[in-house]
Specification:
This protein is of the alpha+beta class. It folds into three domains: about 180 residues, Cytochrome b5-like heme/steroid binding domain (Flavocytochrome B2, Chain A, domain 1), CATH 3.10.120; about 220 residues, Oxidoreductase, molybdopterin-binding domain (Sulfite Oxidase, Chain A, domain 2), CATH 3.90.420; about 120 residues, Immunoglobulin-like (Sandwich), CATH 2.60.40.650. The protein is about 15% helix and about 30% strand. It has a five-stranded mixed beta sheet. Strands 12-11-20-15-16 form a five-stranded mixed beta sheet. The longest helix is centred in the N-terminal third of the chain and has 12 residues. The termini are far apart. The relative contact order is 0.11. The structure holds 2-acetamido-2-deoxy-beta-D-glucopyranose (NAG) (6 copies). One 2-acetamido-2-deoxy-beta-D-glucopyranose (NAG) binds next to loops.
Length: about 550
């Protein structure tokens, strides 16, 4: 046992490392999906050689994939003098050939992985994996580099330190070099984004506009529309685009873009919101896991395309025989598995649900970041089910088995922790709850009083097509509520209020006060109202963050 190992284990024993919580993407056991077979010699994807090679290398190592570590920040402070050179050559260590590493792929023989020029023994680590060891076993004997290139959120000093604590040696320079060529960065060809977006994550790309920009216009301009990607953006040529349609057990059909266009063209207006919108506020209650979204993971746009119900009708779907409509995207994870999600068939087949296979956004061809050439828009439903770069529709008895449907985007009790969470016990989020946010002014702003009043603007929205019937705003902690003026989509039919409502209100303020606290809450047409605080709706993934929005602003004297 190396010195680092010893320290590591001693710390563990003293519980200074609170059980290394490893969250591993519950990858489905690899379907016999050769990427070849599924994506027809990758013809839609530029750089097919590199891409396939990357996937091939990655496929052998996916198990270790995607873990994030839960620990106290200071855990590794015990040796700050030690400059951790993760993945670099350690002259005092044994050299292993890749062949040797490859042999260590079982509990009995030990489980080794490589990163850069480092060799790591993760045998004990695998045991601590709450999701079971079977997934991690798929990583055994291979390199984790390609995976970390795809999920670059592993690129933190804490995770590097943890990895280095399991270091047992180095691989030869030649071996390391020969494998470098395999390391194609799957993010090398991402689209150019507008500088005004605040980036919450680079790889995969996640960004939102500033709140004040958001409420400037009813329709969110495409460059400012939030982006929540889960994987690298696929590059698809329109002439190569195909959409696979399947009814479980029977029909299979492939449409190209032209064939899709034979269905009637429809336009709807809908807001799309990320399940983690406003997570940064919930994270103040307790630590949670997720991208730190402010209030901007939402946008309102028009979506033009064909109705899913028309396509399903044409396919001859018997809606009583099935329960779900699954979607897959052309965006692939390191094992070649696509992004996936599903919605209930009742929603998919209902003409009044307005589910659209969209190819235009705000009257323009869909942009690459928003799903070119085709994405699903499921109005009133969490963004995660609005699958981009749509490659397949599968009518099934089952929900999508993807990680994003089964092991993510679910709500839990505030007392549920990463130690006792059972993702099977919660349903996947579909329709979103009522929510509002103050966008202008923003928290900590200094603002001017005009005629004894301050002006406050924001948005409100509810899932399932429920209309916003009122937004209440207070600046005396609820003693007096002021009803805001709403701007809404007047064309929307009852039960089909897919777009957001913008609101504004003038609040009388006491000239002598230097600071005011403003709260906003919305009420929807089912009289659902936002909860007062985040304390009792906290959940470990930081989803459904719809408590009153509360900000403090300074008044210009
Ligand atoms: C900290 O790192 C230094 C330099 O690598 C090493 O000499 C020392 O033994 C380490 N201390 C502990 C407690 O591991
Ligand atoms: C390195 O590349 C070789 C040849 O491409 C491959 O067989 C081997 O699995 C790779 N090793 C690692 C650790 O990725
Ligand atoms: C990891 O982070 C460092 C510094 O933050 C950066 O230089 C490096 O390119 C990153 N690596 C990857 C694979 O993203
Ligand atoms: C959302 O955008 C659409 C399209 O421009 C617009 O017609 C609608 O009024 C907007 N809704 C609100 C409430 O701003
Ligand atoms: C459709 O879904 C079912 C159930 O998840 C699955 O077994 C089947 O392979 C899927 N079909 C296609 C074509 O993906
Ligand atoms: C390529 C290389 O220098 N590898 C080194 C890894 O560590 C062993 C043990 O010290 C050295 O012998 C190797 O030279």
């Amino acid at each position: 046992m190396s010195l680092r190992w010893k320290i590591f284990w001693e710390m563990r024993q003293r519980s200074q490392i609170p059980s290394l919580q490893v969250m591993v993407r519950n990858y489905n056991t690899c379907k016999e999906c050769s990427t070849e077979k599924k994506y027809g010699s990758s013809k839609n994807i530029k750089n097919p050689m590199l891409y396939t090679t990357c996937i091939a290398v990655a496929a052998s190592v996916l198990g270790i994939s995607y873990y994030t570590l839960k620990y106290k920040r200071n855990v590794y402070a015990f040796n700050t003098t030690q400059n951790i050179k993760y993945g670099q050559l350690q002259k005092d260590m044994k050299t292993f050939t890749l062949e040797e590493v490859g042999k260590h792929d079982s509990k009995e023989k030990g489980i080794w992985v490589t990163f850069g020029q480092g060799v790591y023994d993760i045998t004990e680590f695998v045991d601590k994996h709450p999701g079971g060891s079977s997934k991690i076993m798929m990583a055994a004997g291979g390199s984790i580099d390609p995976f970390w290139m795809m999920f670059a959120n592993h690129n933190t000093s804490e995770i590097h330190s943890l990895l280095e604590s399991m270091r047992i040696g180095n691989i030869s320079e030649e071996d390391a070099k020969s494998n470098k060529s395999n390391l194609y960065d799957p993010y090398a060809n991402e689209p150019v984004r507008h500088k005004a977006l605040k980036i919450n994550g680079n790889k995969p790309f996640c960004a939102e506009p500033s709140p004040s920009l958001l409420v400037e216009s009813f329709l969110t301009p495409v460059p400012f529309f939030y982006v929540r990607n889960h994987l690298p953006v696929p590059e698809i040529e329109l002439k190569d685009y195909t959409l696979e349609l399947a009814i479980e057990g029977t029909t299979k059909k492939t449409l190209d873009f032209k064939a899709l266009n034979k269905y009637e063209k429809r336009t709807i207006t809908a807001a799309v919101m990320c399940g983690g919108n406003r997570r940064s506020e919930m994270s103040k209650v307790k630590q949670l896991k997720g991208i730190n979204w402010n209030v901007g993971a939402v946008g309102n746009a028009t979506w033009t395309g064909v109705r899913l119900c028309d396509v399903l009708k044409d396919l001859g779907v018997n809606e009583d025989a099935f329960n779900h409509v699954q979607f897959e995207g052309y965006d692939l994870d390191p094992s070649g598995m696509p992004y996936g999600a599903s919605i209930p068939i009742s929603k998919a087949i209902d003409p009044r649900a307005d589910v659209i296979l969209a190819y235009e956004m705000n009257g323009e061809t869909l942009s690459q970041d928003h799903g070119f050439p085709v994405r699903v828009i499921v109005p009133g439903v969490v963004g995660a089910r609005n699958v981009k770069w749509l490659s397949k529709i599968n009518i099934s008895k089952e929900e999508s088995q993807s990680q994003w449907q089964q092991g993510d985007y679910k709500g839990f009790s505030p007392s549920t922790t990463w130690n006792n969470v059972d993702f099977n016990k919660s349903p996947a989020i579909q329709e979103m709850p009522v929510v509002s946010a103050i966008c202008d002014p923003q928290d900590t702003d200094t603002i001017e009083i005009k005629n004894g009043k301050i002006q406050v603007k924001g948005y409100a929205w509810s899932g399932g097509g429920r209309k916003i019937i009122r937004v209440d705003v207070t600046n005396d902690k609820g003693k007096t509520w002021h009803t805001a003026d709403l701007t809404e989509d007047l064309q929307a039919n009852e039960g089909r209020h897919w777009s957001w409502s913008l609101w504004n209100v003038e609040l009388p303020v006491d000239k002598k006060s230097r600071e005011v606290e403003i709260w906003a809450k919305a009420v929807d047409s089912s009289y659902n109202v936002q909860p007062e605080s985040f304390n009792n709706i906290y959940n470990i993934r930081g989803l459904l963050c719809n408590a009153y929005h509360k900000i403090k602003v300074q008044l210009k004297q």
